[in-house]
# Entry
Amino acid sequence: MAGSIREGIRLYRAKRWELSLAELLQAEPAGSDPQDNADLAYYLGLCYTKLLRYDDALLYLEQVVTSGLDLLRGYQCRMALAYVYSVTGRSKLAEFELNHLIEKGYESPQIYSTLAYAAWSQKRVDSSVDYYRKALSLDAENANALNGLGYVLADSDKDVRKGLGFCKRAVELVSQNPAYMDSLGWAHFKNGDLPEARTWLRRALDLAPRNAEIAAHMRMVLGEAKS
# Structure
C-alpha cells in the first residue's frame, strides 16, 4: 500500500477528516494495484461524506460498489450512498440502494432506520413508522431508531405521548447527541410542555449552533411562548 494512502487511513481513523483527505489526494492518480485503488476510493468517499461534500463522495462510493472487489466494503458504501441520497433529497435512490441490500440478505437496524428516514422525507408516515419498528425489532436499544420513531410519532401527531417516550430513551442512551436533544425538545413542544422544550432545544443549539432545523424548532417554540 502506498505511503500516502496508509497515512490517510490513519488520519481518517483518528477522525481528522480534512488532513486525511489532503493526504489521500496526494496519492492520486492511483497506481496499478487494484487493492490500492479500492482502498483509495473507499476512504476518499468516506472522507467526502464526513465533510458533507456529497457530490464528491458519490463519485468514489460508486466506484467501490461497482468494482465488486470487497463485499463488506460494497455493503458499507451502499449504506453511505443511501445516507447521502437521503440527506440530499434523493429518497427514491436511497430506497433503491437499501432494498438491494435487503434482497441480498443484509438486514440491520441501520438499513431499516435509513429506509424509515427516506419514507419520512416523502411524507409516508405509516411506512416510516413501520421501518423504525422493524429496526427496533432487531435492536430494541438502537438510539437512532428510537429517536427517529419518537420524532415521527410526535411531529405527525400520530402518538405524541409515545413519541416523547421514545425520544427520552434515545437521549438516555446517547446523552450528548444534539439531534436527539432536538427531537426530545420538539416532542415536549408537541406535548405542550414549553419550558422543557426550550431547555432541550437550547442544549441542542449549544452543541450544534449552526443547525438550521434545530434553530427553526427553537424559533417556533419561542414564538409560541410569546403568543
Remarks:
- Residues 1-69 form a domain with the Serine Threonine Protein Phosphatase 5, Tetratricopeptide repeat fold (CATH 1.25.40).
